[in-house]
Amino acid sequence: MNNPNCSGCNDRPMLNVYPDSIGGTLADIIKFLQMPELANVFQSIYILPSLFNTDLDRGFSVIDYELNEQFASIKDLEVLRDMNMELKLDFVLNHLSMLSEYFQDLIKKGDNSVYKDFFIIWNQFWDGHGEMTDEGYIQPDEDLIKNMFFRKPGLPLLNVRFPDGNAVPYWNTFYQEKIYRNIDVFDLVCDMNIQYSTALKLEEFVNEEISKGKKPNEIDFGQYIPYREKVIELLESKCRYMGQMDLNINSPLVWDFYKETLKKLSEYGAKIVRLDAFAYVSKKPGSKNFFNEPETWTLLERIRDMADEYDVTILPEIHSTYGEKLHEKLAAKGYMIYDFFLPGLIIDAIERNTSEFLIRWFNESLDKKIRAVNMLGCHDGIPVLDLKGLLPDEHIDSMIKTIVNRGGHVKDLHGKKDMYYQVNSTYYSALGENDKKFILARAIQMFMPGKPQIWYLDLFAGKNDYDAIHKGSSAQHKEINRTNLTLEHVRNALPKEVVKQQLSLIQFRNTFPAFGFDAKATIIKSPDSFLKVKWENNGYCAFLEADLVNYDFKIKAVDSDGVVCFTQSSIGGK
């Protein structure tokens, strides 16, 4: 296969965790991996970005790429290296936290900040392509934004207050929050020359309004109207920012940051770096601003050239419909991709008792030489947008209804009703918390083309965490599938059949030589209600026969001498 960017990574199973998912720290995860039951099960580990110094979105709002001292240490990473554990880490390309040193320098120094252009100044970007509004930002010409991809209602901008009092609009694709701090009587008396007794009452009134979530210009000042403008100015001058600011790839300083980050990740031991939000980076008036072509290809090529210096494989992460063929284009240019189709395809195959579409994707992956990381569950929901064009719409709709009826929560596409992006659920709950279905799904994953990624919670047949989704944040729906486990919970779960069967399957996939990116894989002809797969490599053969009606399966492995050396069947199978 002609995949130059994938040549340095192995195809063996990869554990996927947050650094606090098991036991609370990376050191505890290492203890888990060192348990006898985990011997030879995993050869790779993907640690999500709360490993770093982050604030929001459970890691995907990066302040900097120093290790989070609450969760991990350099010693932990050295232990993983000594265990010959291939390490995969995240690099968020599109944005940085507003608590980063770059943004903090900007709000402290304003026009004098060396990082003024590190982020995208809205009015400079749209200069000549719209009209200036009374609010101080350019409203782009409608024909330039009518097809533009925005993740939230309205224009993606944030007014950033400079020290001189000017508000400068910057591009903000993802989350933003302005936090208004309470004023005190001393501010009012000393800065605004208000009588003390009046200042006490004004302080109480304003702070109560702010506590209700009102923005300064939304407050009805009533009897205090004479003080309105000065109080608003005071509140704005004291506000704090939280969120993720888009980076300006036309700034050389951003490319310096990219290079420094890749170097740091490689020093941590990363062999695979997942590129998060890369498709949003390129922006151009009149373009869709999601995977703009050819600009995004230029971006990826520059990043790949940098990564090659550090012997790192980059893994671009993107959700798009099958019909758009972006996955195919990425693979054709030698990039490893995510197989976001497989989770839904396996559910469809099991629930509809047919291997038709699963086989179609299996053969296409091989024919088009697609190297992928595949999965069942992950830190996000079960992808459904991706399946459009691969599965019939009625299959997708039926699957969504089935998972929701089993307790899943639907994620709309950026607030657009009835345009579904993913369903938030554990994979075990999505399959009705049926052990036979779940073990069958894992067995099928082990025999599909690609590098298997295993979500830690799936390993223990985790159920939907309904308590976690009611904790206040708009993103809490994702926590349904992110329950942290104690080491005691893990130890008690290891003897369970649903866990033992998975560990056996993953260990087999990890150690048996028949599998590999360059191995031969074929579908053995059978009725649609069955799936029969054969893998061959250097004289070794592995066979899977799956019954999609009864959820039974049989696995047989034959060594290079023709001797049967491994067998496994489903729970209750013969």
Structure description:
The model has no long low-confidence stretch (mean pLDDT 95). The chain has 2 domains: 322 residues, Glycosidases (TIM Barrel, Alpha-Beta Barrel); 146 residues, Oligo-1,6-glucosidase, domain 2. 41% of the residues are buried. α12 packs antiparallel against α13, α12 crosses α16 and α16 packs parallel to α19. The longest helix has 16 residues. The protein contains 19 helices and 25 strands. With 574 residues, the protein is an alpha/beta fold. The strands form 7 sheets. It has an 8-stranded parallel beta sheet with strand order 14-13-5-2-1-20-16-15. A 5-stranded antiparallel beta sheet has the order 21-22-23-24-25, covered by helices on one side.
